[in-house]
Structures are given as structure tokens and as C-alpha cells.
Amino acid sequence: MSLILENLERVVGGETHIEGIDLELEPGSFNVLLGRTLAGKTSLMRLMAGLDTPTRGRVLMNGQDVTGVPVRKRNVSMVYQQFINYPGLTVYDNIASPLKLAKVSRGEIDRRVRSIAEMLHIDPFLNRLPLELSGGQQQRTAMGRALVKDADIVLFDEPLVNLDYKLREEFREELRSVFSERRCIAVYATTEPAEALALGGNTAVLHEGRLLQYGRTEDVYHRPRDIQTAEMFSEPPINILHGTISGTEVTFDNRLHFPVNEDLRSLPPGDYRFGVRASHISLTPRAGDDIEVPMIVDMAEISGSETFLHAHNDLFHLSVHLGGVHGFNGGAPVTLYFPTHRIYAFDRQGAVVHIPTHLGGL
Amino acid sequence: MNKIQNNRAWWLILPMLLLVAFSAIIPLMTVVNYSVQDVFDANTRFFTGTEWFKEMLNDPALQAALLRQFAFSLTVLAIEVPLGIGIALIMPKRGWQASAVLILVTMPLLIPWNVVGSIWQIFTRGDIGLMGWSLRELGYGYNITANPVDAWATIILMDVWHWTPLIALLCFSGLRSIPDAYYQAARIDRASRWAVFRYIQLPKLTNVLVIGVLLRFMHSFMIYAEPFVLTGGGPGSSTTFLSQSLTTMAIGQQDLGPSAAFSLIYFLIILLVSWVFYTAIMNMQKDKKNEEA
Amino acid sequence: MAEIALKSLAHSYLSNPESPGDYAIREMNHVWQQGGAYALLGPSGCGKSTLLNIISGLLEPSSGDVLFDGERVNALPPELRNIAQVFQFPVVYDTMTVYDNLAFPLRNVKTPEDRVHERVMEVADALELTSQLKRKAKNLTADEKQKVSMGRGLVRDDVSAILFDEPLTVIDPHLKWKLRRKLKEIHQRFEITMVYVTHDQLEASTFADKIAVMYEGQVVQFGTPRELFEAPNHTFVGYFIGSPGMNFLEVSLRDGHVVSGTTELAVGREFADALGEIRSTNVKLGIRPEFIEVHDAHVEGSMVADIIHAQDLGTYSILYLRLGDTTLKARIEEEQPTPSGKAYLRFPGKWIGLYVDEFRVEIAS
Question: Which of A79, A258, B202, C169 is most buried, most CB within 10 Å of its CB?
Fold first, then answer.
């Protein structure tokens, strides 16, 4: 089962919710839709599901045009942000409900409900009503209902937002293993870059109804196509600095410049915006040609294992993600080391013109 | 494409379409037809154009009824809306008390209109009616068949009793949808009871109040059965409202042409007022949206 | 300005609580000092919201005292307690402008208008709301609304503490960063006691100087983010703080060697000695994924483990490893090459914790 969206557009009351989206989701793939509130994640999912019809464009499933086909004929299931279950039915009957509608035999229903419940760790609660369960268990029940019917597409619309941080962690891990054994297409909407990375698979970055980039999650993260994608897919936010390449130097101003190294040599002189991830700036030089930047501390946020340092000079602000715990006082001077080998360069239009090569990762 | 299969759904609304045609469109057209003709019998009729309309608009009796109608509708709205909000505010929000009060409040809504008239007719009688008797015992010469003020006051009281529960119910549901956090925040901000009402409850009630006011306006503008049963439109014509004038004309005098014209005028007034009201509210909301953009 | 103290405080929603399980808050003593930035961290249902409501006065505790600067305030309603609260879902007065929203708490107590103006302008400046003052509060974005709710607490001179109930729940991640910074800035500028309730350890630890971790109606640890991270005194704290949480291995002593299941662990002599003195059967070794050393070749004191899966999280990766019959997670930084197939692990003695019956036991060195 593959899903292809062709030049999809949806306009509601003069407002464009989805604008010219082309996307091809492969059978058995896990896909994350990453975007801020109102980026069009839910709108796009509704089009995939057949809950809405596009103003323009086509939806193809397995090569067949299903653009006008309503949701009940598409074998799609969906999990929402709110925990949506039938309040009057037990967990067992909730999970069994799609199978009963599909007139599956009793024995088969029983077998499948129990195996799904076991996989989602809700087998002890099968005889309870949803409202007697915790939020996490209610959402597991809703997921059970979505997964039990072997849908071609399973859509998750920010399903973990209303759950505790730690539960989210567990859920993500389980989701990955659940879908690794399935042939259906999973689509998962989230606002959190960290969640997209934790889920892996593929990521589509959405912004204002447009698709910015789609690809393997790590690829999109490490190799954003333009400045917007880089900004959408970074946490803490990526640092963006204006600078100029002039013949032999990269210049931020007359005090702050460094010789153009082999990474950036191919770029023609001109104005650029440079992107530096917060974790690539450090307190000690990590490479011989890191440049020293004197800055003033605004504030340090310390978690148990890491420090998020916010600092400025009269040219720019920098957010720095440091390993370990470091104490800083607001207003104190600090010397930061700026990695000349780990910077992204974007041209005036915002398209990426240089991606650092020494990225590490996988 | 596959879209065609959806078209079958159109057949499903056909029964509804027929029903609407028979219940609304065809009768209305009949009325339009009558309003521009003078009909003597099945075979003799003359086209009169706007004649009936002119006559109706210039009829002093109808003008008086129209004025009376507006006075009535505005008075009941002015009483029922604040009263309904007030009742909703003091209704218990949860527990068995909430259910009990809810049933009690809803009771008048369940009584048919002409029965309401009969109940009040008996209630206000000077000899056996509790209210009529009590007032007379207290020394007030209460008489709805002779005193127009008494008749008016009683009809308004009756309408308030009958319909305030509707506003109260709507407001009650509106109040229930306000999250607790709002009240908690207001307490922490040391807001007075009035400020809580003015800045939290009232804004959240606007939507239901729009529906409530519209419904009550249309309802009260068409009031017929209750005053007809209670006062018969009297004393004199002091409580004869539009619908009753119309009925008298159409049924009593068989003046089909003028009453058809009158019906249409009546209909258009209700439509116009409702439309003005509706657009005004919608514009207010649009302003808010524009500000957002 | 106030110090908030809880003395033998307990609360149950039942009228006749019997077992400890009937209590939403089990008996506790706790002090929040004037001017501190605190977090109350725990999973849903741990009692943290109950505790917050008791402090703000929305709920009266079943037993014990709530003391503001030593004065008992149990029976005082919220409006008399001089606290402000920011709720999970933004609460603003929709029909008022931002200015009127901020002025509201002052006008409610008949503050003179020129004083109101002065305070509102000061707070609007601190919260970067000055340009928004004339807008209707209804049309603000979620993060702006949260700033307005906080502003309504800050305008009052008499507010001794601001309580936050998961204030970033409905905020997009990129704005969370900004708002969190703003909170810290405000805390430093106004020197007001702040108590921040959340289930998110990152929010808690970046905001607070000290965190109270709650679990089943009790504060299981109260300490700085660093203490909670480096030396959690309960397995729950180890699990709950840190992402991913601490690794725990059930350990025992066999022929003088520390073993987990059948696998011998390379840990220091001190650990084995400590283990020898313990009678309980519930004994665990805890080590954070951040502190496991991962090598691609054998080094002194290392143990070989199979790599099940590696997950790239952008700025770092998590390795899922199998050591004997336990699964472990280890964090490796971006610049460190990821070994494949097998990895050689070392547990630095400094970062190993010994947990007996779920509580940490100090190892004598």
C-alpha cells in the first residue's frame, strides 16, 4: 500500500490551508509530519484520511485515485490528541468495535483484541470502562482500536500531547516497535523536533500549509534544504547569523572574521546567513580553527546534565547547548568557540548552499 | 471519477425537500397569490396588485396592533433576558440539587400554549383563582376583563413565567462550559462578584444569548393562543396582538385578500428584524476577527 | 514576600481515609524560602496539583498547616493570601484589552489610576507586552496570553508568590524556549517566590533552583537539578529525571563478584564490599546513560555488550545495548563515532549508585 499526494491544495473560505503538496509515502513507512501550530498538519491528515476533499490535486492509494472516496471506504484509522473512546463500552469492546463493524468472526475478534491489548500493555484492563483508566491507558485503548483493524493508513494527530513526559518516552519506543512489524503506512503529526528525531523513520516538515522538505528523519535534520526547514527542525533553535564572504574571509564585522576554509571555498562572495546549531558552539576549542568570540552572558538554564547558555554581543545573540553543568552569572563575560567547520550557509533566498560535512551522528 | 457515487446521496434529501415544499413553499405561494387578487368565488377574481398592501399598511387598527406587538415583545425581552440570566446564575451547578432545580425550572416549557392560557385564566379569576382572589383580598380591584393595565400586566407575567426558563436553560448550559480556572483566576485577582459576571460570565454567554433573544423575539412576536384564551384580546382591543387581528380578519370576516397581504407584511417584519439582529451580531464578531488579522 | 512552609500537611479527598493509599498528599513537611525558584515535579496523579491548590487556597488540607511567613493560612481564601497563579490553559479576560487585563487586579482593590498606570507599564515592559497593550486579550496567541496571566500576578506589590500549573502545555516548542527564559528573567528581576508544577523534567530543571520530586503523594527528593541528576536517592527519581532515565540492573554477589543475572559486572571493589553487607533481595545498580563509557575496542575494566539499535537524536545518539540479559541505554555525543555490532562499556565508579529496596545507599570509599 503506497500513498501519493499530487499537487494537493485545500482552500477553506478564501484561506489556503494546504498549498501544492506533493508527497509519496512508501508501504510500511513511518512518517512524521513536523510543523508548528497551524502549519497544516491536521489539514493534511484529514485529506489523507478522506475526511476532507482537496480543492485541487489528487490522492492516490496503491496507484488508484481515491480523491473523492469518503473515509469509510478507505480503511484508514486515526488517533487524536484527546483520548477518544466509546465511554459506555469496555476496553475490550472499544478495541473490538471496528472488527464488529467489519463483521469479523467472534473467535477472530477475540484473538486479535487480546493480542493488540497485550502489545499495548492494557490486557489487565479489558473489562474496565475507559474513564476508569489513567490518561495513558485511555490513549492506549484508542490506539488499540486504531491498530486492530489492519488499516492501510494509521494517522496519529499529536497523540501524546496530553500525556506525561515519561509516558511519551515509553510510547515512542513502543510505537516504533509496533510499526516495524506492519506493512501499513503510519503518519504521525507533532510540533516537537525532538519527538520527530526520537520516532525516526521519515519526516515531512510543514510550514504555513507548504511542504518544506521530506526525507529520512536524520537526513532532513542534518541536511535541511533551506533556512526555514533548519529553523523548524532544531531544538534548541538554531542560531542564524548574517555575514559576508569576501574573497578570502567570512566576515561578521571588522572584529569578527575568519579565513574562508576549504568547506566554504566554493561559495561566491556576497551576503549570506549562517546557521550554527546550539550544540556545536563550545567553551573550549574543539578544532584548531574554531574562532574565539567574546560574549556577555544573558542567562544560563541548567538541567541536571546540560546547560543552555544564552549570550550576546553587539552583533548577535547565541544559544549554546553545553554538556554538563556550568554556572554563569548574568552580565558576566564569556568566551565561546565558534566552529568554522560546522556551519550551514544559506543564500539570500534562504536556500542552503553549504552543509557541513563533519557532522557525526549516524 | 469515483465522485459520482456520492451523488446518490442527493436522493436522500428528496423526502425532506418535498416536505418543505408542502409545508412551507406551496402555502406561502398560495398566500402570495391571494394577496394580489380579490376573490369572490371560485371563478370570479380580479387582480388588485398592491391594493391590499396599501390598505393594510394604512389601517389604523392594524397599526395599533403592530405598535402593541412591538411594545409587548420588547417588554418581555427586557424582563426575560436579565431574569433568565439571574436564574441561571443562582441555579446549583452540580449534585442532586442541580437536577431537581433543572426539572422545576423546565416545567413551564412543557405546557402547551393554550393550556398555559387556561391555567392563567383560572389562576387570575377573582372568585376561585389564587392570584385574582389574593389581590382582591388585599384590596386591589384586580380585573383583567375590565382594566387594560391589569390585562397587560397579566399577559406579560404569564409570558415571563412561561418563557424565562428557556433563557435560563440556555444560560445555564453556557455557564457550565466555563472552565473552573477562570473563576479561580478571578478569585486570585480579587475580582468582585459583579466583575466576575461582567468580565467572565457575560462574555461567555453572548453566543447563547444571541440564540435566546432571537428565539424569544420571534416567539413573542407571533404570540396567539395564550392571550386569546386569557383575555380574548380585550378589554376592548388592548391586548389584541398581530396574529389575533389576522385570524379575526381571515377566519371571522373571510377577507382573504387583505389578510394574505397582511400575513406577508407580518412575515417580512419578522424576517427583517431577525435579519438585522443577526447581521449586527455577525458584524460584531467579524470586527473581532479583523482585529486579529 | 513570603516563605511558604508546610507543616505535617496531609490531604485526602475521602472523608474517612484509612490506608496511606487514600491520601492524595501523605504527611509531609516542606519549606519554600522567600525569593526562590522552585519546581514541583512528578507524573500525573502524584498529588502535585493538589498540593498547588492547597498552597493557593483553592483547597483546604485535611490536616496539618500551611504557613506563610510563619502565619497559619489554612482557612484563608485565595483572594486573601497574596498569591498569583498561572494555569495550564491560558486564562485572560477576553473582552478586555491587555492593558485592562493587567490593571484588573489593581483596580479591583481601588488602586489610584496613576499608580495602576505606572505598575502596568513597568510589568508590560518586563514581559515585552508594551506594543500589545491596546489589543483585545482574546486575540493574543497562547504564549502572549500566558504572559498576560503572569503579568496580572506581577502588577501587585503585595504578591508573595506566583504559582505555575504546567504553564507551557499549550505552547509550541520554539516559543517554550523564549517563554522559559522570560520566566527566569522575571524571577531575577522581581525576586518573587515562584513554584512551578510540571511533569516535564527539562522544564523543571531549567527553571528551578531546587526541585521537589513527587511520587504517590510524597516528596521523594528535594534538591538541585544537579543533585537529582547525579545522585537520585530513589529509583523513581532516577527513572523520572533524565531522558532517557537511569539504567537499573538487579545485582547480587557471587563468589565475591558482582553479577547481574549470570553476567559478571566490572565494578569497583567498594561496590562489592557494600553489596556484601546488604541482606535485602531487592538490590539494584543504577547508572545514567550519560555516564556509561562506550568504546569500540576493549579497554581496561570494560564489559562487552551487543548493540541492538542506535538512535540519532540530532545533538547526540542513544545506543540500546544488551549486557548479559539486561537492556541498557547509553548516550554518545555527536562527535563520537558510533561503534557497530559490539561495544565495550565501562561504568565509572564515581557514577554508580547502589539502590536497596528502591532507596539509594551511600558507598563508603
Answer: A79
CA C128/CA B5 separation, integer angstroms? 56
Residues C41 and C162 in one domain: yes
In Å, how far is C267's CA from the nearest CA of chain A?
A: 23
| pLDDT average, residue stretch A270-295 | 88
R_g of chain A computed on alpha carbons = 24
Q: Is there a domain that residue C241 lies in?
A: no
C128 touches chain A (CB under 8 A): no
Contacts of A240 in chain C (CB under 8 A): none
CA distances from A244 to A249, A273, A274 (A): 8, 8, 9
Q: Is there a single domain that holds both residue C296 and residue C160?
A: no
The predicted pLDDT at position C286 comes to: 94
For residue A250, what is the domain's CATH number? 2.40.50.140
pLDDT band at B287 (very low <50, low <70, confident <90, very high): low
Closest C-alpha to C41, from C244, C243, C208: C208
Contact at CB, A164 and C172, closer than 8 angstroms: no
**C94 and chain B: CB distance < 8 Å anywhere?**
yes
Give the model's pLDDT for residue A46: 92
Instruction: Give the three-state DSSP class for B4.
Output: helix
pLDDT digits (tens, 9 = 90+) for C216-269: 888 999 999 989 999 999 999 999 988 889 999 999 988 888 998 888 888 888
User: With an 8 Å Cβ cutoff, is C151 touching chain B?
Assistant: no
Question: What is the average pLDDT across C139-151?
Answer: 90
Selected residue of C54, C94, C96, C144 to mutate for chain B interface (largest B Cβ count, 10 A): C94
DSSP letters spanning A56-100: EEEEEETTEE-TT--GGGS-EEEE-SS----TTS-HHHHHHHHHH
If one counts the domains in chain A, the total is: 2
Q: How many degrees, rounded to 5, is the angle at CA C149 between CA C148 and CA C155?
A: 80
Candidate from B179, B187, B190 with C-beta closest to C109:
B190
Interchain proximity B1–A68, CB inside 8 Å: yes
Which chains touch A (3+ CB pairs under 8 A)?
Answer: B, C
Say whether both A37 and A170 belong to one domain. Answer: yes
Which domain range does residue A301 map to? 239-354
CA dist C4 and A128 (Å) reads 41
DSSP classification of residue A351:
B
Contact yes or no for A120/A167 (Cβ under 8 A): no
Q: How many domains is chain C partitioned into structurally? A: 2
Residues of chain A with pLDDT > 70, as a percent, come to 99
- The CATH number covering residue C213 comes to 3.40.50.300
- Interface predicted TM-score (ipTM): 0.82
- pLDDT at residue A63 above 70? yes
Say if the Cβ atoms of B181 and C58 lie within 8 Å. Answer: no
What domains are defined for chain B?
Answer: 1-29 (no CATH), 63-256 (1.10.3720.10)
CATH number at residue C313: 2.40.50.140
Say if residue A166 is in the same domain as residue A252.
Answer: no
Residue C262 lies in a domain: yes
CB contact (8 A) between residue A305 and residue C336: no
Taking only the tens place, the pLDDT of each residue in B127-139 is 777 888 888 878 7
In C, residues 2-41, which contact A (CB 8 Å cutoff)? none
Are residues C170 and C297 located together in one domain of the fold? no
Q: Is residue C239 part of a domain?
A: no
Whether C217 and C348 share a structural domain: no
Cα of C80 to nearest chain B Cα, Å:
8
Contact across the interface for C83 and B203, Cβ inside 8 Å: no
Take residue B220 and report the three cell numbers written for it: 413573542
| Whether C95 and B190 lie within 8 Å, measured CB to CB | no
Parent domain of C146: 4-224
Task: Judge if C263 and C116 occupy the same domain.
Answer: no
B1 in reach of chain A (CB within 8 A): yes
How far out from the chain centre does Cα B117 lie?
A: 16
How many CA atoms, within 13 angstroms, populate the side-chain half-sphere of residue B82?
A: 6
- Check if A69 contacts B (Cβ < 8 Å): yes
